[in-house]
Amino acid sequence: MGLSSVPATAVLLLLTAATTTVRLCAAQALVPGMMIFGDSVVDAGNNNRLPTLVRADFPPYGRDFPETHAPTGRFCNGKLATDYTDDDAVESLGLSSYPPPYLSEEAQSNNKSLLHGANFASGGAGYLDATAALSGAISLSRQLDYFREFQSRVAASAGGQRAAALTSGSIYLVSAGTSDYLQNYYVNPMLGATYTPDQFSDALMQPFTSFVENLYNLGARRIGVTSLPPTGCLPASVTLFGGGSGGCVERLNNDSLIFNRKLGAAANAVKQRHPDMKLVVFDIYQPLLDLVSNPTSAGFFESRRACCGTGTIETSVLCHQSAPGTCANATGYVFWDGFHPTDAANKVLADSLLLQGLQLI
Ligand SMILES: *[C@@H]1O[C@H](CO)[C@@H](O)[C@H](O)[C@H]1NC(C)=O
Ligand SMILES: *[C@@H]1O[C@H](CO)[C@@H](O)[C@H](O)[C@H]1NC(C)=O
Ligand SMILES: *[C@@H]1O[C@H](CO)[C@@H](O)[C@H](O)[C@H]1NC(C)=O
Predict the structure, then answer these.
(1) Which candidate, 60, 181, 266, 303, has a CA 20 to 30 Å from the CA of 278?
(2) Which helix (DSSP H) or strand (DSSP E) does residue 259 occupy?
(3) Could you tell me if residue 3 is inside a domain?
(4) Which helix (H) or strand (E) holds 105?
C-alpha cells in the first residue's frame, strides 16, 4: 500500500496544525536542543575526521546540499531526514540550526557552538561496539563518552543550570542496527553460525537497553529511536543477498521486522522503569517500504536502482565523482547510493518522523 490520498491528506492536516502551533510560539523554541547518536543515516560529518573508508566527504555526495552544493560528510546528495528544514523536523521544533557534528572544527574549538546540542553519530556504528570496530567508526559507547565530555563543556560555557536544562529538555535521536546486520551479521560467518536471526536480534536488545539507560542516567528525558528500515529493499542488499531476483530480499525484511518487534518490547520495558522519560520508537520501516513499493504515488519514478554509479552497490568510497552511470537528477530516485535514501526521499521520511516526534514534546 502506498501513501494513498486519504492518509496523505490527514498527514498534511496534522503537519499544518503542527507547523501552525510552532509558528505561534516562534519566540520560544519547543525544545532547547537536539542530540543525535548512531550511524550513517544521521552522521552529519563526524566520519570526515576519522581514518575510515566509511565516509562521504567527496563529490558527488552533497551535490544538492542547499547553497553550497558541496559534500558535508552526510551520506546523501543533500539533507538527511534529521536535518530536513522545509516543513522540517529541526525548524518545526523551533531550533535555529542543525546540531554540529561533535568532531567538527567548530564544535571542537568553541564550547558555545554546543548550546543547542550536537551530533555524535558515525557511519558504520551499530548497537554492537564490534560493528563499529569493523570500519573504524565511533562506537555507541564512545559516542556516549563524547556526550559526557559535551555536558561538561556546556556547563563550563553556560553554567550548570543551563547545561542541565539543555540535557533534560533536548530531544535525543538514536539510529542504529542496520550496520549490525548488513556490515556484520550477514557477512561474518562466525556470527551467522553462532546466532539465528532471532537470537541475533536478542543480542542487540541488551546494548540498546543499556544505551538508553545510560542516556537516562545522564539526564536525557525525551528519546526517539528509529526502527530498522526494510533492509532487504536497499539496492546493495538486493544485489548482495537477492540471488538475482531483483526484488526486495524477503529474508532480510523479515529479520528487520523481528528486530523491530523486539525493539518495541525492549523500549516498553525501559519506559516502565522510568515513567518520567518519554521514549518513542519511530517507525521508518513502513514509510520507506511504501516509497519502495509505490514510488509514483509520492512523486518518485525509481526505487530499485540508486542514483550513484550503477545504482546496484556503490556507497562511500565506491560512490565517487567518476563512478560511471551516476544519474543527472536524483529528484525522482528513492535511493542516492546502495544503502542511503536521496534528499527527496529523506524529506518524505522527515515528515513521518516529525509526526511521530510530536509525542516527545
Ligand atoms: C570549554 O570546556 C572545557 C571543558 O569543560 C574547558 O576546559 C574550557 O575551559 C572551556 N572553554 C571555554 C572557552 O569556556
Ligand atoms: C518471511 O515471513 C513470512 C511471514 O512470517 C513467511 O511466510 C515467509 O516464509 C518468510 N520468508 C522468508 C524468506 O523467511
Ligand atoms: C530534477 O527533476 C525535477 C523533476 O523530477 C525538476 O523539478 C528539477 O528542476 C530537476 N533538477 C535539475 C537540477 O535539473
Answers:
(1) 181
(2) helix 250-273
(3) no
(4) helix 105-109
Q: Residue 88: which domain range? A: 30-360
3-state secondary structure of 280: strand
pTM of the model: 0.91
Residue nearest to atom 1 of ligand 1 (CA): 153
Q: Is 12 contained in some domain?
A: no
Atom of ligand 2 nearest to the CA of 250: 13
Best probe residue, ligand 1, of 110, 148, 157 (max atoms within 8 Å of C-beta): 157
Residue 6 within any structural domain of the chain = no
Find the ligand nearest to 230 CA. Answer: 2
Which ligand has the minimum distance to the alpha carbon of residue 107? 1
**Residues acting as catalytic residues:** 40, 337, 340
Q: What is the CATH number of the domain that holds 62?
A: 3.40.50.1110
Q: Is the residue at 4 inside a domain?
A: no
Interval 117-158: pLDDT, tens: 999 999 999 999 999 999 999 999 999 999 999 999 999 999
| Residue pointed to by grid coordinates 518522523 | 353
- φ/ψ of residue 281, rounded to 5: -90, 120
pLDDT tens-digit readout, 322-341: 999 999 999 999 999 999 99
